[in-house]
Every structure is written in structure tokens, then in C-alpha cells.
Amino acid sequence: MDLDFSVSENAFRQECRAWLEANAPRERLPSGDTREGFALHLEWERALFDAGWAAVSWPKQYGGREATLIEWLIFEEEYYRVGAPSRVTQNGIFLLAPTLFEFGTDEQKERILRPMARGDVTWGQAWSEPNAGSDLASLKSTARRVDGGWRLSGQKTWSTRAAFCDMAYGLFRSDPDQARHRGLTYFMFPLHAEGVTVRGVDRLDGDEGFAEIFLEDVFVPDTDVIGQVHQGWKVAMATTSSERGLSLRSPGRFMAIATRLIDLYHRYRDRSDPVLRDQVVQAWMDAQAYRWFTFQTVTRMREGGSIGPDSSMNKVFWSEMDVRTHETALALIGQALELDEGSPSAVDGGDWMKGFQFALAGPIYAGTNEIQRNIIAERVLGLPRK
Amino acid sequence: MRFAFTDDQKMLRDTVREVLQRECAPDVVRAAWEGRLQGVRSVWDTLAETGVIGMMASEEAGGMGMAELDLVLPLEEAGYAALPGPLVDTAAVGIPILEAAGTDEQKERWLGPALSGEARIVVSFEDQHIVPHVASADLLIAERAGVGFCVPIAEASVNLEQSVDRARELGRITFEAGAKFRMREDVDPRAQFGIGRERAALGAAAQLLGLSRRMLDMAVQYAKDREQFGKPIGAQQAVKHRLANALIEQEFARPLVYRAGWAMTTSAADAEVAVSLAKIYAGEAAKFVAKEALQVHGAIGYTIECDLHMWMKRAWALAAAHGDAAYHRERVGRHIL
Hints:
The complex is a heterodimer of chains A (386) and B (337). Chain A is an alpha+beta fold. Chain A folds into three domains: 7-88, Acyl-CoA dehydrogenase/oxidase, N-terminal domain (Butyryl-Coa Dehydrogenase, subunit A, domain 1), CATH 1.10.540; 123-236, Butyryl-CoA Dehydrogenase, subunit A, domain 2 (Beta Barrel), CATH 2.40.110; 245-380, Butyryl-CoA Dehydrogenase, subunit A, domain 3 (Up-down Bundle), CATH 1.20.140. Helices cover 47% and strands 13% of the residues of chain A. Chain A has helices at 7-23, 35-50, 69-81, 90-103, 106-118, 232-244, 251-268, 274-302, 310-333, 351-361, 369-380, and strands spanning 123-125, 142-146, 149-156, 167-173, 184-190, 196-201, 210-221, 225-226. In chain A, strands 1-4-5-8 form a four-stranded mixed β-sheet. In chain A, strands 2-3-7-6 form a four-stranded antiparallel β-sheet, with no helix packed on it. In chain A, a hairpin with a 2-residue loop joins strand 2 (142-146) and strand 3 (149-156). The mean pLDDT of chain A is 95. With 337 residues, chain B is mainly alpha-helical. In chain B, the strands form three sheets. In chain B, strands 1-3-4 form a three-stranded mixed β-sheet, covered by helices on one side. In chain B, strands 2-6-5 form a three-stranded antiparallel β-sheet, with no helix packed on it. In chain B, strands 7-8 form a two-stranded antiparallel ribbon. In chain B, helix 7 (189-225) runs antiparallel to helix 10. The interface between A and B is large, with 46 and 43 residues.
């Protein structure tokens, strides 16, 4: 066990810190889940990519720096410490890219990864359907074989930022004679092509962060199938495991929120009681717990293990911690909590109410926490499925 | 950054695990509850033979010269077995204080027997007069007004108290704090006992992890075996989610306990905070797992006949010992706010 950072890890941290402090936007950008904010975020993503920071753990040939997982965690700590903008390329970089690294062809990786990381081509996920949420395998969208490719039809929903994105990825039933997990294929498809209609949906916080996607005989070439035809479930599960695991929400994000919460506590402590003080301490400790749990997981992964069902414990922990932390912040602010981002008098620009509403989505997206608990009970504890 | 134990550390854990599996079955714990201590004595002797009792003593003194980090895995196993007796008190706190602050005469008289398993040490910190395991111990190491005392139990006065966990053999202890028992004062006794307190808290946290793991194992097994409505109760989502929550609490406490062991071993600047985090999370997790395990067992869990209660009561006692959550949260708060 060596829980100090090595000389080279510390040097990496200094390098991240120096670049981020010099280059991260001074002003808060408008929400990346609005059309205007999305465009401004992409400018920042481009600057990140051009300096080699967009996807530090990727191979150099795709614009990364071949950083270790520990270094990636260090980068994330520094990124959120300086308050850099949330990543609107996330659904590509952290969800699709790991799948491409595992199942993609060389041609796909060559064509897709760099423009994805630079924000030149933006990606949304298209998993859920109106009647296939937690029960994803019951999805109804279809893929019909045609010359040189496939024709996709159906409806996808809850696609994050798809209203502004160029491309999406998801599962379609390619073999109508098969049921449930069998006969599905993993496709990448264009959002501006003929036959595609995208309709933005306003989320709880009012941003157009969601979209519905309607597909009518949309052509997709064979080169946009990931993995083998009819084997999409297996391919998709690799992605969902990284989504709910550490790549989606690294500890740095929550450590930065805990630090901001302590700052808020100092400004509002006059009205705070011992219960709130305890809750602030608890929020800081929870971020620490998540950090050490993650270093333990990453060590195991670096030594040949896989994240496996740990990712489900991870997801339940961070999503519920995030809600509690924001509830504590709102309790400190008191009555003024209702002043949101549109109010000139809002505390911290309304960030806490905004963050609270976003946090409430955590236990729902990336597989609801009920599904995660089933996974933990069945695959870790070995309880019977039925 | 590498968060994993060495092969040697895991081997020591496996040795202790095997010894306890073989010699400290639940009926040994149950016998200790009833004051029959032969079983516990015999496990203690085996642990001494493996070197675990003396692991923190220096090699010159016949120990293994090990540190806090080496202790956490064996102590987790002790928790898993609900091993009765003053293992933390003797191995993690008593022996190191005796070696660091004992007079030549005190060391001559007690260090060898402690390492060989003949003498069991209990510790009384400044503000602590009710001492666990005092009823069957041989030596008391106590801190009074910043001075250390090394008192044979035979020369102290012990009034028995009763713990909810009968295997803790509590007693209120008084002794003549005179020159006869005094330990060395030129070695900063306050600092020695200060480290002892941290080790005691860490040791409790490590045991609490093991207690959690055992209670969860019992509950999971019960949920697989017990059938109602024609299927195992563990197939019900309501039961699954309780047990999943218990596992999450336990597994997020684990790295904090290990990290505290490392922080103490390396004298990290934030070692006290690390110990507090370990104690809070391991204690809260064990209490939570206890509650969920009881609920999953249903009425049988609410009996003395079922083994669960011995683990549960140990968890309640240790979660409050050496600083409860409120104490340690206050300490963390002073550091970060």
C-alpha cells in the first residue's frame, strides 16, 4: 500500500493545475444543457483538446496523453477544483469511447474519436424508449437489413443534449424473431439525416437537456455497427458499466462541491445549528469516502481486475451523496433557496438550486438505483433472481 | 498511489482467519458469554504462537516489529469471529506502551509473558474507569494525570460491571497510583497514550468491519435458506434492497479503515482525521448492518438462541467505544471548518 502520490503523479498534477488555472474560463458559462450554453461549452472543449487535456487517458494517436487511471483521477480533481465547466462531450468521451476501444474497428476509432474529443462531432445516447426504461431489453425500435447497411425506425427518449448533438448511439432490434436481450444490434446514427426528427424536452430545471428522437427508415451503413450484428446487448453492457462506474462521476467533482459547501457554511454559519454543521462535515467525509473507495477500485483495475458490479455500489453512493450535499446547501441558504439562476439576488448565482435539481436526476439516470440494488443483491450477494 | 495490501499482509490475514475458523466458532463466543473461557484461552495461545499477539513489539523484544497497517486485516478477522478477549488492548495498545514506557523491571516481568500469551493486558485511558476484559486480564496499563501506571490486576481492585455484550467482561478498576506502579516519565507518557488512543480507535474500526461482514453473511445466508410464499425471502426486492444497502455501507467504510492504518503507519499529517473517518464509518456501518440483519432474520434474530445477537451487541459496544460518531465528527469538524 502506498497512498501517497508518486513523484511523476505529483508532477502530472502540477502540470494539470498550471494549465487549468491559466486557461479555464474565468466567467461561469451558461448551462451546457441549453443551445447557447452548449455552443460556448464546445469552444472550451476545443481548447481542452488542442492542449491535449480532453481525454487524458486515451492513446496519443487519438489526442490523449496515455495517462494512467490514477492520473486521470488527478486530472479530474484539478479540473473541478478550478471550477472548470461541465463536460458536454461526456456522452461521447466517457460512454461511447470506452465501447469503441473495446469493440470498435480501427476504421471506426480513426474516424470517430478525435472529432468526438474535440467537440467537432457531438454525441448523445439513445437507450430509453417510451416503454423501455429500466426494462431496456423490452425495446421496440427496429433495424431492417438493406443493401450496404440498415434502416432504423422507432422512438428513443431521454436523450441527453440530443437536441443540439450531431450523432447518437443506441440499441435496435435487428432480428425480429428474437426476444429480449437477443437479436439486438448496437448502432451509431446521424441526428440530422432524412427520416430523423428530434424534439427537445425541458427538464425539471427548465433546460432543454432532454430530447425525444423519432426515426423513420433512417439509413445507417454497416460501418456504423459497433461489435457484431445481433450482439448489441453485450456491447451495450460494457458502456453502461462505465456510465454508472467511476468514469461518469469521478471523486474530484464531489470533493469540489464539498469544498464549496464548506465555503457556503462559513458565509451562513450565523444561522446554522449543530445539525447543519454535522451535515456539512458529513458531506465532506462522504466525498473522502468516495475518493478512497475509488483509489481502491482503480488499483484493482490496474492490476488486472475489472470494475464489475462495484460500479453499481459506486453509482448508488455518489448519486445519493450528491442529493444529500445539495439538500444541506439549500438548508444553509434557507428561505433564499427559491431564488434561482434567473434572479439577480440569488445566492451563488442560483447554483445550489440548479445543482440540487440536477442531483435529483442522479438516482434515476444511468440505471435507477432500484436496478443497481437488484444488481448488487443478485450479482454480489448471490441472492436468487426469483 | 497503490491501494492494496501486500502478499505478506494477506498471508497473515489468512493465517488468522484459519485459526479463528478452526478454534473460535460461535459456540466458543457463546461459552465466553457464560463465563466459560477455556476455548478463548486456547485461541489466545494459538494466536500468540502465530505471533499476532506480539506483532507490534520490536524484533529485539521477540515481536514482529509490525505497524498499524499490518494490524487492520488480522483485527478485521477477529471481528468476523467476534473473538472475545483483549486482543486490541494487548496487541495494539498495551504491548507498545509497555515496551516504550515500561521500566526495565516492568518489561522484564511482563513483556515476555504478554508476547507468549500467558499475560493478557488491558488498558485504561485517563477518562476511562470501566475497562473491558478486565475480569480475566493479568495486567492493567493505565494513564492517570498524564502518568503511566503498570498495575498487576491482582494488586488492583475490580468491581464487575455488566456489558450488553457479556463477552466483554467489564469492570470498574481502582488502584493506588503510587511510585510502585509508575512507568517511565522521560518518554512523554501523554504522547504514548495519545497514540494508544488512536490505535484503540483504529482497532475498534477494524473489528467493526469484520463484525459487519459476518452479520451480513449470516443475513444473506438466511435470506437464501428461509422460504415463504414458496420461495426464498431473498428473492423479494424489499429484502434484496436492505441487504444491498448494508453492503454499500460496509464497503464504503472499508477503504477508510485501511487508509487510517496507512496514515498512522506513515505518521501522515492528517492521521487523526483519517482515524476519525474510519471509526465513524465502520461504527455507523456495523450498526446499520446489525439492524438490517436483524430485520431480515425476523423473529428468530430476536432471540438469544440465534448467534446474530452476539455480533450485534459487540457492534453496539465497539461503535461507541474509543470515541463514538459524535466525538469523531466533532474532531473532523475542527479540522475542516
